[in-house]
Amino acid sequence: TQLLEQSPQFLSIQEGENLTVYCNSSSVFSSLQWYRQEPGEGPVLLVTVVTGGEVKKLKRLTFQFGDARKDSSLHITAAQPGDTGLYLCAGQISSGSARQLTFGSGTQLTVLP
Amino acid sequence: DSGVTQTPKHLITATGQRVTLRCSPRSGDLSVYWYQQSLDQGLQFLIHYYNGEERAKGNILERFSAQQFPDLHSELNLSSLELGDSALYFCASSVRTGFNSPLHFGNGTRLTVT
Question: Are the beta carbons of A99 and B92 separated by less than 8 Å?
C-alpha cells in the first residue's frame, strides 16, 4: 500500500496545454517535496513545501501544499516538451533525529511537440 | 550533475550471487541514503547513514546490508540475490538530516538478476 498516492499515473498532452498532478495521503507530513526524474538519471528536487496552504512558483510550475498537510498539487502552465519526465512527490516522516522520505508512485508526463 | 557518483552503472548477475554497489556522496555531504526503484514498488527507502552511523532503516531485506566508511563513501551489499531484486538502486546524499537539507541523487545502478 502506497502511503502517497499520485494521480494520474500517466499523462500525455500537447505542447502549450496546462495540467495538474495530484499527490494525496491520509497521513500528515511535516514537509513535502516534488522531484522530476528523467530516464537514466536520478530524481532531481524541484521544490520543498513546509507550511499548510503554502504555494510556491518555479517559472511555469506552481506547487501547493494542502491546508492539512496531507496533499499537494503541481500545476504546469503551457507545458513544453522539456517538461517530459516522471514527477514524484515525497513526504517526510519524522523518525527521531533521522529523516525518512516516502515517495509516491509517480506521474509519467509526456509533452508532445 | 548532482555530484553523487554511483558505480557500477549496470550489473548483471545470477540468482544466489552477491554484489556490492558503491556510492560516493557530494563533497561535504555527511548523510547517505539508499533507495530501491522498481516498476511495481516505486522508489522505496532502504537505509540512511550519517557520518558513518546508521540512522534509519526502511524496507531493507535481511539479505541486504550497508555501511558508510570514514571517507563517507557508502556500499550496499546484496546477497543471495533473487529475481525480484532486479531494480534500480539509487544513492542520495545531503549535508544534514533535516528537511531543509535537500537530497541529491546519483544516477543509480541498474541491477539485473537472471
Answer: no
